[in-house]
Design a protein that fits this description.
13 helices
Length: 746
């Protein structure tokens, strides 16, 4: 199919060594047990806590806490959430592998799909049908942005069907629905006999002779494909069958008796299944739904390293990702393959609008990576005005009035007259890799603030670089990233308590913009980014979810500090893995999407959340570790709904008590409501007998939410009859479990 397995393996090894390097916050490792199978063999002390509903001290919870981060890594954009089903549709470029070469410092190109020009155009993904000859040509550009076209030479003497087929992104999912196909075609005048009556487009099996659906483009007598200018044809394929697998192709075919001896050129050949919210050029439907179903409140895009580029010229240029597809030239992405730019600024913003998600727009901040490694090149201080001007133009495109601003009018011409709502802008990505953020950040911060004073601006550095700290103004936000061991996240449970005061960051809030448990606990706690077997976590496990969950409880406890979070990377095409672990894995087959244990953790936490935090007092000997908890409350009037998205009926008060047991023994828990009683309690649990369990193809729900079936009822707790209430709840919290208890207060 598109790329070889060897290419994928090489890419994992070459990028893993340099792609991320996260500075660990000093922790208290000695005071916490490791999360692994050998720990917590002693019987833990019971935990007794009390909750006072009317004691004061409540804080508004952070409504945008649970979010999503997306950059095109592991073909999560092209070949992922971008709905385009065809690979290499416009011959914009190819893949290359970056890694060490003997005798040369840093990294270099180790392997190139185009052996002469790394990332240059290739014919990969395309095959001829019926004996035609395929090649690439520069003689007939579709546009300045798309100068390379596919040339099909049809020999004399061929019979039957002739044409071209596309293999898709490691296959094409075929199921009942409407597929929108389009392509540009041009004929060669000397090689055009003028007898064409029709062109067929079809979806067909790559394993059998099955043709799932076909649509015909008719040509009237005397009509033919133009040899003077490109013509775009659009057609719908109405499909009524479900293919048994995704090993399918898309074909454009001709009757050989009509076209033998002819030559045709093709460009921008496209196939879109039904998309999320039926948007043209939109988001893959099932993956878009998975993002929304998590409970996602913010989307950070477009990166990530991928915004920075392997060079300044190959950075993510917002103005090259908008407008007609034939005017989007694509770029060399930062993860080994070319980006088509079909998934552009408008597509991201429309998805946010359709999904009810707050956009967090990352803008290029004047620093680019290099294939050498993480050290790259920056705009000089006296040229930062160019970067600022470009950002302001982008923000005008997003939010400008269509009738009074240049870029607002441009947006309107692209089909969106109304300005988008934008409240958050992130200045760069992981800029602590550079030495220049100390001058770049204040120039951009002040310039953006002057033009857009109501925007919340996010710094991508604070104290990660040993040579400097970034002074973030009050009202600003810090994006912090952590790829760590489970115990790091346990140690960080209380890290955000009083963080603003103790660090002198009054008025500064936090976005945990990238996080995941990356490896198992080790004695020294040093993360090995070469991903060694036996140490690295390749798929999110229950152990990982427990570590991440404890950290998220700490975030929920501090809504005045931590406003947003997002796991990273979020998506991986299982045919091209740049980075592991990932939140959601997928293939071309929509039935093979796997939601991880970490995904389900966030989904449960996002769904069951109140509007305000509640103070929880510890009354017994047992404290935090191995139990960890937080409580929130939602009070609704009749006809209202639960503020966090959870249950709670039509009216009344619902308390959500989240409790995680990171140990391998059950822990007795008592919850007493000192000024109230509950009439009903329900629960959701995420657990498994094996702390190393994870979800995978063939067992996609090994670690997934389930109702708690052994909860004591209110009547049992009170020792009274059915319908009575009680103020005390007793339960043995199962080992290695993530739980949400939902108390319906009377």
């Amino acid at each position: 199919m598109y790329y070889t397995s060897l290419l994928v393996v090489l890419l994992q090894l070459s990028t893993a060594s340099w792609a991320r390097s996260v500075v660990r916050t000093p922790g208290k490792r000695q005071s916490f047990d490791f999360i692994n199978i050998t720990q917590y063999n002693s019987t833990p002390s019971p935990v007794e806590v009390s909750i006072a509903l009317n004691a004061g001290g409540r804080n508004q919870t952070a409504p945008l806490l649970y979010g999503w981060m997306h950059e095109d890594i592991s073909h999560s954009g092209d070949g992922g959430i971008y709905g385009e089903a065809l690979v290499n549709r416009a011959f914009q470029g190819s893949g290359a592998i970056i890694g060490p070469v003997p005798g040369i410092p840093g990294s270099s190109v180790q392997y190139s799909e185009n052996p002469i020009l790394p990332w240059g155009p290739v014919i990969t993904g395309w095959q001829g049908i019926g004996g035609v000859n395929l090649s690439l040509t520069l003689l007939h550009p579709l546009s300045d942005a798309l100068p390379v076209a596919l040339q099909m030479d049809i020999p004399w003497g061929v019979t039957g069907q002739v044409g071209i087929l596309n293999e898709g992104w490691w296959g094409i999912d075929v199921r009942p629905g409407t597929y929108n196909a389009s392509f540009y075609i041009l004929s060669n005048k000397p090689r055009n006999n003028g007898t064409l009556s029709h062109i067929d487009v079809s979806l067909r099996s790559n394993l059998t002779d099955d043709v799932w659906c076909t649509s015909t483009i008719p040509f009237s007598e005397g009509q033919n494909v133009s040899s003077f200018e490109w013509t775009q044809y659009q057609v719908q394929l109405e499909n009524s069958v479900k293919a048994p697998n995704s090993n399918n192709t898309f074909a454009i075919t001709f009757d050989a008796s009509e076209v033998a001896g002819n030559t045709y050129y093709f460009s921008l050949v496209s196939l879109f299944p039904e998309t999320f919210n039926n948007r043209p050029n939109g988001i893959r439907k099932d993956l878009g739904q998975a993002i929304v179903d998590l409970g996602t409140k913010i989307l950070r895009f477009p990166g990530g390293n991928n915004i920075e580029g392997y060079s300044i010229d190959q950075r993510w240029k917002w103005n090259e990702t908008i407008g007609p597809l034939k005017d989007r030239k694509g770029r060399v992405g930062d993860w080994g393959y070319t980006n088509t730019n079909g998934l552009g600024l408008m597509e991201y913003l429309q998805f946010c609008e359709d999904g009810g998600i707050e956009p967090v727009l990352a803008v290029y901040a004047g620093f680019s990576l290099d294939i050498w490694g993480q050290d790259g090149v920056s705009f000089p201080e006296d040229r930062m005005g160019d970067v600022l001007a470009d950002i302001l133009n982008e923000l005008e495109y997003v939010t400008g009035d269509a009738s009074t601003t240049t870029y607002g009018a441009l947006r309107s011409s692209h089909g969106h007259p109304d300005p988008f709502v934008l409240n958050y802008v992130e200045i760069g990505n992981e800029d602590w890799f550079s030495s220049t953020y100390p001058y770049r950040f204040p120039i951009l911060y002040q310039g953006i603030k002057q033009a857009y004073p109501n925007l919340t601006l996010i710094s991508t550095a604070y104290n990660e670089n040993a040579n400097y700290n970034i002074s973030i103004p009050q009202g600003g936000m810090w994006d912090t990233h952590h790829y760590e061991e489970p115990s790091f996240f346990l140690e960080g449970f209380d890290y955000w308590d009083n963080w603003q005061e103790t660090t002198g960051n009054e008025g500064v809030t936090v976005f945990v913009g990238e996080y995941s448990v990356f490896q198992v606990d080790t004695p020294d706690g040093v993360v090995n980014f070469s991903m060694p077997l036996g140490q690295h976590i390749f798929y999110p496990t229950l152990m990982a979810a427990i570590g991440e969950g404890v950290y998220l409880l700490g975030c929920e406890r501090n809504p005045g500090v931590v406003k947003m979070s997002s796991y990273a990377p979020s998506l991986v095409n299982l045919n091209w893995q740049n980075w592991t672990p990932d939140l959601v894995a997928f293939t071309a087959d929509h039935d093979q999407t796997v939601l991880s244990a970490s995904y389900y953790l966030q989904q449960v936490f996002a769904r069951y959340r109140g509007n305000e935090t509640l103070e929880v007092m510890n009354r017994g000997e047992g404290g935090f570790d191995p139990l960890w908890w937080v409580a929130t409350v939602t009070e609704t009037e009749e006809g209202g709904g639960g503020g966090g998205g959870g249950g709670g009926g039509d009216s009344g008060t619902t308390v959500y008590f989240k409790v995680i047991n990171s140990g391998n023994s059950s822990v007795d828990l008592t919850v007493e409501f000192v000024d109230g009683a509950f009439s009903e309690v329900n629960g959701t649990i995420l657990t498994h007998a094996d702390i190393g369990a994870f979800n995978y193809l063939g067992n996609a729900t090994a670690v997934s939410p389930a109702p708690i079936t052994n909860l004591p009822t209110a009547a049992a707790g009170a020792g009274q009859g059915e319908g009575e209430t009680t103020s005390t709840f007793n339960w043995a919290v199962p080992p290695w479990s993530i739980n949400v208890l939902e108390f319906r207060m009377s």
